[in-house]
Amino acid sequence: MYMEEIKVFCPATIANLNCGFDVLGVCINGIGDEMIFRKTNQKGIKIVKIEGANLPYETHLNVAGVAAQAVYNAINPSFGIEIEIYKKIKAGSGIGSSSASAAGAAFGVNELLGKPFTKKELIGFAIKGEALASGSEHADNVAPCMLGGFTLIRSYNPLDIIEIPAPKSLYAVVLHPHIEIKTADARALLSPNVSLKNAVEQSGNLAGLIAGLYTSDYQLIGRSLIDKLVEPLRKQLIPYFDEVKTGVENAGALGFGISGAGPSMFALCYGEDTANKVNQAMNIVYSNTKISFDVYLSSVNTKGVELL
Amino acid sequence: MYMEEIKVFCPATIANLNCGFDVLGVCINGIGDEMIFRKTNQKGIKIVKIEGANLPYETHLNVAGVAAQAVYNAINPSFGIEIEIYKKIKAGSGIGSSSASAAGAAFGVNELLGKPFTKKELIGFAIKGEALASGSEHADNVAPCMLGGFTLIRSYNPLDIIEIPAPKSLYAVVLHPHIEIKTADARALLSPNVSLKNAVEQSGNLAGLIAGLYTSDYQLIGRSLIDKLVEPLRKQLIPYFDEVKTGVENAGALGFGISGAGPSMFALCYGEDTANKVNQAMNIVYSNTKISFDVYLSSVNTKGVELL
Q1: How many contacts does A have with B, using Cβ atoms within 8 A?
Q2: Distances (CA, A) of B46 to A218, B26, B99, B110
Q3: How far is B12 from B31, CA to CA, in rounded Å?
Q4: Residue B159's pLDDT band (boundaries 50, 70, 90)?
Q5: What proportion of chain B, given as a percentage, has pLDDT over 90?
Q6: β-strand A80-86 against B44-51: which pairing, if any?
Q7: Which residues of A belong to the active site?
Q8: Is B202 helix (H, G, I), strand (E, B) or coil?
Q9: What's the rounded Cα separation, in Å, for the pair B95 and A234?
Q10: Among B13, B59, B183, B274, which one carries the catalytic annotation?
Q11: What is chain A's mean pLDDT, rounded?
């Protein structure tokens, strides 16, 4: 048997995007995992190499393994697949590390199976891997990682994912402070109830953001990037959140907020010049702290998971 | 002085649209008020005729009067304006009766003043008239009445109104049962707090609706026309709500809900054929009740308030 091998890029993603809590995400360039998938004679999914993270090799305990197995089982081919994982996105960074593994694994297995599923269909498999990491089948990172661009999760039951266009001059800048925030802790801070007034304002801002993305109205995008429900509660977990916010707003960012459940923060910007200034502003604030950090500057990744 | 006179059409509107509670509205054809505006030598605004409704003639007690006066005062011209009001939209019907008066008055006065303000600017004046009727400066009927099409109120402070495109084959059918629901009573039924889960689902549906309107994706529009926050509480005020809902869904409507604060109900439909069937379905349900009613079938009115 010819040992076919493919290499896959699994990009990072920003979920929530302020007013899009739990329903919106976007795919970015500049940082992502790599995975290698290889056909073998022995049936089943086997993880044979993991670099860049201390993760379990047992398929059923590994996010990529669970997602890969789900796709594999749906077809039950006569051959096996072994996987090498090269993690670049740090776990717990808030830019979709587990989703990159899950989406990449589902995509890679599907490729070796001869593409029986569309990318959209693969999301349903990938979120089973994501569930291992986050406790529920969240798709707000998985969907943009898989499809690229902005994605809206209108509904989970049934899963209804809508691709939203990304304006060409939109840039994202992500600041990742090297501290750990457990998703469970970030979830526990949320109030189970919110005021109707804030819920209405949040929905109006999300609608404005969607309209801004369809019309490439950067100012509307900026005006809409407000989070009434979550940021006020969660920002306490993120050191120097307000200082970074002030810095990037002064540097001309359209909007700023928490990426996923944090600790990463993100800014959206019009044009690369402003994105560079926002990058500098983030560096200035965090260079004066004792916390090590990374900054990623990126246009929107409109391809999502792809073959290398 | 030449006694210039104009006649204005002030269309009805559907606010809320399920997932768009308090932020979205749409303008319809087929029913609307008419108003006549006439320049006079005597300074000030004077309401000289009201037909079709029992409303006060005192400018400061009349929705149209307040809106007209606000625009008039901003310019303070050397002439006066007298107004005739021909109400066709019944007060308390839930299809923007007071907003039609307010938007029409602001528009008509602005025309006679030589159009110092844009239609969007006039909304800021018209909501002062609307506030006389509803107790607050709501724009979710005023904005679509003024501008036509679908309008999003992203924010009130500052007022930020976004025009959303209307797909060409979208039809609205409105059933107006001749019962009275006081807006205050409809408001009192609302809970001041909602679950975060429902708020997130509502925002996802609104985002889906906006995406569907931009892409003319009628099925997505239909899937998104869900109201998790308000309909479950308010539908009890509307006789035979569930029966009408079942009827119009069986007839092929994309979605169905409460128009404004009720008692009117609306359905959105793809194409006139389906709209006719939905019209019939509404008639069948309400013909078997003792409540008199009207049904209006209409394409989306994309012009808003206009000169006749």
Answers
A1: 127
A2: 44, 30, 19, 15
A3: 6
A4: very high
A5: 91
A6: unpaired
A7: 130, 183
A8: helix
A9: 40
A10: B183
A11: 95
Is residue B2 over pLDDT 80? Answer: no
Closest chain B residue to A203, measured at CA: B203
Residue pair B232/B130 in contact by the 8 Å Cβ criterion: no
Residues of chain A with CATH 3.30.230.10: 5-164
Closest CA to A32 of A90, A94, A83, A71: A90
Q: CB neighbours of A235 closer than 8 A, spacing ≥ 6? A: A241, A242, A258
Residue B138 contacts residue B103 (beta carbons within 8 Å):
no
* Numbered ranges of CATH 3.30.70.890 in chain A: 170-299
- A170-299 adopts what CATH topology? Alpha-Beta Plaits (3.30.70)
Contacts of B121 (CB under 8 A, 6+ apart): none
Q: Give the integer Cα–Cα distance in Å for A158 and B219.
A: 14
- pLDDT for residue A1 is more than 90: no
Question: For residue B44, which of B3, B75, B7, B72 has the smallest C-alpha distance?
Answer: B72
Q: How far is CA B272 from CA A73, B61, B266, B275, B285, in A?
A: 46, 40, 15, 5, 20
Q: How far apart are CA B177 and CA B179, in angstroms?
A: 6
Cβ of A4: how many Cβ atoms within 10 Å? 13
Whether residues B203 and A201 touch (CB distance < 8 A) is answered with no
Could you tell me the sign of the dihedral formed by the alpha carbons of A235, A241, A247, A251, in that order? negative
Residue B138 identity: H
For residues B297 and B23, the answer to whether their CB atoms sit within 8 Å is: no
Q: List residues bridging with A79 in a β-sheet.
A: none
Give domain B5-164's CATH number out of 3.20.20.140, 3.30.230.10, 3.40.50.2000, 2.30.30.140. 3.30.230.10
Q: pLDDT digits over B226-269, tens only?
A: 999 999 999 999 999 999 999 999 999 999 999 999 999 999 99
- Comparing CB atoms, the residue among B19, B23, B194 nearest residue A194 is B194
Q: Please tell me the distance from the alpha carbon of residue B95 to that of residue B203, in angstroms, as a whole number.
A: 23
